Automatic annotation (TrEMBL):
GO terms for molecular function: DNA binding. GO terms for biological process: DNA integration; DNA recombination. Transmembrane segments: none annotated. Residues 209-351 form the Tyr recombinase domain. Keywords: DNA recombination, DNA-binding. It comes from Mytilus coruscus. This is Tyr recombinase domain-containing protein.
Amino acid sequence: MGIDAFTINWQGANGWFVPPVCLVSKVISYMRQCFAHGTLVLPLWKSASFWPMLCPTGEGFIKEVKGCIDLPTNKKFYTSGKGNKSAFQSDLLELPDTLIEKIHLLPDLLTESKSNNTVQNYYYGFLRWKKWALSNGISSEFILPAKPIHVAIYLACLVQQNRTPSPINQAFYSIRWAHKIISVISPTDSDLVKNILEGAKRRLSVPIKKKEPITPDMLSQMFDRLYCENNLYNQRTISACLLSYSGFLRVSELLNLKTCDIQFFLSHMSVFIQKSKTDIYRDGDRIIIARTGNKLCPVKNLESFLEWSNNPLDTDVFRMISSYLFSNQCQQTIITSRAEFLKGKNKEEYM
């Protein structure tokens, strides 16, 4: 049975660490945390994200590194594993030595094909499948690539252990990701596995509870209750709510706004969104919000807030907002009960 290595203390052990590229930084950090020592095997990859942790100046390793050995890159120095199931094995054997040395360019780009959080979720999702398969007597050669019947049984077992379809979805797409990334036929393409997933969704699905929409009347009541000249605390709340409502902004987009991202004009303001959930390539986008001329004008209220707060250009617009509206404790309240907040609930009820 497998064990998550990051849940145990590495101190006192002479470790042999050969992590996948996506976990090298985490291994280095955890070694420091545990004051561990051992041998770390990793690619000589000076452009990788983990390299500055080992060689911050580019001219020698950090003092914790007591020595290093360059392993040969020629394939004649190595023997194949017992499984003989390496990804692209036949292709690799046919590559000339000059191209073998460039193989290290591929893994990081493959992991960056999706967001870091997605890759991490898929990676650990695949490890759970691997752990289950090995504990149930499935040979390691049938883990990747996997057989549809094995995956179907695995998903069926997950249905018995969970009350929502989310874990089954994650398992399905984690296995699919692992197979697609090495270009082998995925068991998730099988009609058997697809139908098991659909059955799990139908059995475990729950009714969707729609949120009550925010209306202009609610915003008006909030404004009348909170507005006070030169009250920076209340004006921050008003500005955040009106800007989110008029610009259809997510919480993460709102909290990442900086003063320099906002430009005011006579008829409107321009807001630059540096990154968002739908902007996978981080190109950024600008949204235009018009002046309305009434008390609920998001442009006028944000102008007042910035004028009263006197924020420097390179600071977050709502840098103090986490103390109330979007703290860990209150974030769920705003997401699930924002209508009640706008209707006039007292702050103390949310703290």
